[in-house]
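BUG-185 | component: ligand-complex export | severity: low

The export step for uracil jobs runs without errors, but we want the raw record kept on the ticket for reference. Input record follows.
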Amino acid sequence: MTTLQKLASQASGCELCALSETRNRVVFGSGNPRAAVFLIGEAPGRNEDEGGEPFAGQAGRVLNEALAAAGLERRDLYIANVLKCRPPKNRNPKREEIASCRPWLEQQLTLVDPVVVVPMGNFALRLFQKDAPPISKARGVPFDSKGRTVLPIFHPAAILYNRSLEGTFREDFARIAKIGSSLQR
Ligand code: URA
Protein backbone atom coordinates (compact mmCIF):
# COMPACT_ATOMS: atom_id res chain seq x y z
CA MET A 1 0.00 0.00 0.00
CA THR A 2 1.27 3.43 -0.86
CA THR A 3 1.66 5.74 2.07
CA LEU A 4 2.22 9.48 2.06
CA GLN A 5 5.79 8.80 3.14
CA LYS A 6 6.43 6.53 0.18
CA LEU A 7 4.80 9.01 -2.16
CA ALA A 8 6.94 11.83 -0.72
CA SER A 9 10.06 9.80 -1.31
CA GLN A 10 9.04 9.16 -4.94
CA ALA A 11 8.23 12.83 -5.45
CA SER A 12 11.61 13.89 -4.05
CA GLY A 13 13.24 12.69 -7.27
CA CYS A 14 10.56 14.05 -9.61
CA GLU A 15 11.76 15.25 -13.02
CA LEU A 16 8.37 15.58 -14.69
CA CYS A 17 8.92 19.25 -15.52
CA ALA A 18 11.76 21.70 -15.96
CA LEU A 19 11.36 23.10 -12.42
CA SER A 20 13.38 20.06 -11.30
CA GLU A 21 16.42 21.77 -12.85
CA THR A 22 16.17 24.90 -10.71
CA ARG A 23 14.68 23.71 -7.42
CA ASN A 24 16.66 22.92 -4.30
CA ARG A 25 13.98 20.87 -2.54
CA VAL A 26 10.72 19.25 -3.54
CA VAL A 27 8.15 20.65 -1.11
CA PHE A 28 5.81 17.70 -0.87
CA GLY A 29 3.40 18.78 1.88
CA SER A 30 2.99 18.40 5.61
CA GLY A 31 0.50 17.92 8.39
CA ASN A 32 -1.88 15.27 9.62
CA PRO A 33 -2.01 12.33 7.18
CA ARG A 34 -5.62 11.70 8.25
CA ALA A 35 -6.75 15.32 8.28
CA ALA A 36 -10.38 16.07 7.53
CA VAL A 37 -9.32 19.43 6.06
CA PHE A 38 -6.74 19.74 3.26
CA LEU A 39 -5.37 23.20 2.40
CA ILE A 40 -3.84 23.83 -1.03
CA GLY A 41 -1.48 26.72 -1.76
CA GLU A 42 0.18 27.75 -5.00
CA ALA A 43 3.89 26.92 -5.08
CA PRO A 44 6.95 27.02 -2.85
CA GLY A 45 8.86 30.28 -2.51
CA ARG A 46 12.47 30.79 -1.47
CA ASN A 47 12.05 29.75 2.18
CA GLU A 48 10.11 26.64 1.28
CA ASP A 49 12.59 25.70 -1.45
CA GLU A 50 15.37 25.90 1.14
CA GLY A 51 13.61 24.23 4.05
CA GLY A 52 11.33 21.75 2.30
CA GLU A 53 8.18 22.70 4.27
CA PRO A 54 5.17 24.54 2.83
CA PHE A 55 4.32 28.06 3.97
CA ALA A 56 7.54 28.77 5.83
CA GLY A 57 7.91 32.43 4.84
CA GLN A 58 5.82 35.58 5.23
CA ALA A 59 2.67 34.05 3.74
CA GLY A 60 3.18 31.21 6.22
CA ARG A 61 3.17 33.70 9.08
CA VAL A 62 -0.19 35.08 7.88
CA LEU A 63 -1.49 31.53 7.64
CA ASN A 64 -0.19 30.58 11.10
CA GLU A 65 -1.79 33.65 12.66
CA ALA A 66 -5.16 32.91 11.05
CA LEU A 67 -4.93 29.27 12.16
CA ALA A 68 -4.07 30.29 15.72
CA ALA A 69 -6.91 32.84 15.83
CA ALA A 70 -9.29 30.04 14.81
CA GLY A 71 -7.86 27.67 17.44
CA LEU A 72 -6.22 25.48 14.83
CA GLU A 73 -2.71 24.11 14.54
CA ARG A 74 -0.92 22.91 11.45
CA ARG A 75 -1.09 19.36 12.71
CA ASP A 76 -4.89 19.56 12.61
CA LEU A 77 -4.74 19.89 8.81
CA TYR A 78 -2.80 18.74 5.81
CA ILE A 79 -1.12 21.41 3.63
CA ALA A 80 0.28 21.04 0.13
CA ASN A 81 0.73 23.17 -2.98
CA VAL A 82 -0.36 23.03 -6.62
CA LEU A 83 3.33 22.91 -7.56
CA LYS A 84 5.87 20.98 -5.48
CA CYS A 85 8.84 22.95 -6.81
CA ARG A 86 9.62 26.66 -6.72
CA PRO A 87 9.14 28.55 -9.98
CA PRO A 88 12.18 30.78 -10.62
CA LYS A 89 11.73 34.24 -9.09
CA ASN A 90 8.34 33.09 -7.78
CA ARG A 91 6.69 33.60 -11.16
CA ASN A 92 3.21 32.19 -11.74
CA PRO A 93 2.94 28.45 -12.36
CA LYS A 94 2.77 27.51 -16.07
CA ARG A 95 -0.04 25.39 -17.41
CA GLU A 96 2.27 22.50 -18.29
CA GLU A 97 3.89 22.59 -14.83
CA ILE A 98 0.48 22.40 -13.20
CA ALA A 99 -0.48 19.46 -15.42
CA SER A 100 2.77 17.59 -14.70
CA CYS A 101 2.53 18.12 -10.96
CA ARG A 102 -1.16 17.42 -10.60
CA PRO A 103 -0.91 13.61 -10.19
CA TRP A 104 1.16 14.10 -7.00
CA LEU A 105 -1.59 16.23 -5.47
CA GLU A 106 -4.31 13.86 -6.68
CA GLN A 107 -2.53 10.98 -4.93
CA GLN A 108 -2.13 13.05 -1.76
CA LEU A 109 -5.85 13.76 -1.80
CA THR A 110 -6.64 10.08 -2.28
CA LEU A 111 -4.37 9.05 0.60
CA VAL A 112 -5.40 11.74 3.09
CA ASP A 113 -9.02 11.47 1.94
CA PRO A 114 -10.18 14.76 3.48
CA VAL A 115 -13.82 15.77 3.77
CA VAL A 116 -13.13 19.41 3.00
CA VAL A 117 -10.59 20.76 0.51
CA VAL A 118 -9.59 24.40 0.82
CA PRO A 119 -7.98 25.88 -2.29
CA MET A 120 -6.17 29.08 -1.33
CA GLY A 121 -6.09 31.43 -4.32
CA ASN A 122 -6.83 31.17 -8.00
CA PHE A 123 -4.34 28.51 -9.06
CA ALA A 124 -5.54 25.99 -6.49
CA LEU A 125 -9.18 26.84 -7.14
CA ARG A 126 -8.82 26.22 -10.89
CA LEU A 127 -7.74 22.64 -10.27
CA PHE A 128 -11.32 22.01 -9.17
CA GLN A 129 -13.18 24.46 -11.43
CA LYS A 130 -11.48 25.19 -14.72
CA ASP A 131 -13.52 28.30 -15.43
CA ALA A 132 -13.91 29.46 -11.85
CA PRO A 133 -14.59 33.14 -11.20
CA PRO A 134 -11.72 35.04 -9.56
CA ILE A 135 -11.06 34.08 -5.96
CA SER A 136 -12.47 37.44 -4.80
CA LYS A 137 -15.87 36.23 -6.08
CA ALA A 138 -15.44 32.50 -5.42
CA ARG A 139 -14.19 32.66 -1.83
CA GLY A 140 -16.52 31.41 0.85
CA VAL A 141 -18.82 29.69 -1.64
CA PRO A 142 -18.55 25.91 -1.19
CA PHE A 143 -19.13 23.44 -4.02
CA ASP A 144 -18.88 19.69 -4.47
CA SER A 145 -16.04 17.94 -6.30
CA LYS A 146 -15.98 14.15 -6.46
CA GLY A 147 -17.87 13.84 -3.19
CA ARG A 148 -15.71 16.34 -1.34
CA THR A 149 -16.69 19.80 -0.22
CA VAL A 150 -14.41 22.43 -1.74
CA LEU A 151 -14.30 25.76 0.09
CA PRO A 152 -12.14 28.35 -1.71
CA ILE A 153 -10.46 31.11 0.29
CA PHE A 154 -7.93 33.88 -0.40
CA HIS A 155 -4.26 32.97 -0.70
CA PRO A 156 -2.42 34.12 2.47
CA ALA A 157 -0.09 36.29 0.34
CA ALA A 158 -3.12 38.31 -0.79
CA ILE A 159 -3.51 39.43 2.83
CA LEU A 160 0.10 40.69 2.83
CA TYR A 161 -0.71 42.91 -0.13
CA ASN A 162 -4.15 43.98 1.04
CA ARG A 163 -4.62 44.03 4.80
CA SER A 164 -8.31 44.86 4.42
CA LEU A 165 -8.81 41.19 3.40
CA GLU A 166 -7.56 39.91 6.73
CA GLY A 167 -10.96 39.97 8.46
CA THR A 168 -12.52 37.85 5.72
CA PHE A 169 -9.53 35.49 5.72
CA ARG A 170 -9.86 34.95 9.46
CA GLU A 171 -13.63 34.49 9.26
CA ASP A 172 -13.07 31.81 6.64
CA PHE A 173 -10.68 30.01 8.99
CA ALA A 174 -13.17 30.27 11.84
CA ARG A 175 -15.64 28.53 9.55
CA ILE A 176 -13.08 25.89 8.56
CA ALA A 177 -12.31 25.24 12.26
CA LYS A 178 -16.00 24.77 12.96
CA ILE A 179 -16.45 22.33 10.10
CA GLY A 180 -13.18 20.57 11.02
CA SER A 181 -14.15 20.08 14.66
CA SER A 182 -17.38 18.39 13.62
CA LEU A 183 -15.34 15.99 11.48
CA GLN A 184 -12.65 14.83 13.96
CA ARG A 185 -11.34 11.45 12.83
N1 URA B 1 4.47 29.08 0.39
C1 URA B 1 3.90 27.94 -0.03
O1 URA B 1 4.26 26.85 0.38
N2 URA B 1 2.89 28.03 -0.90
C2 URA B 1 2.46 29.18 -1.37
O2 URA B 1 1.51 29.17 -2.15
C3 URA B 1 3.08 30.36 -0.92
C4 URA B 1 4.09 30.28 -0.04
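Assignee comment: Attached the raw record above. The helical segments are 4-11, 46-51, 58-69, 95-112, 122-128, 135-138, 156-161, 166-181.
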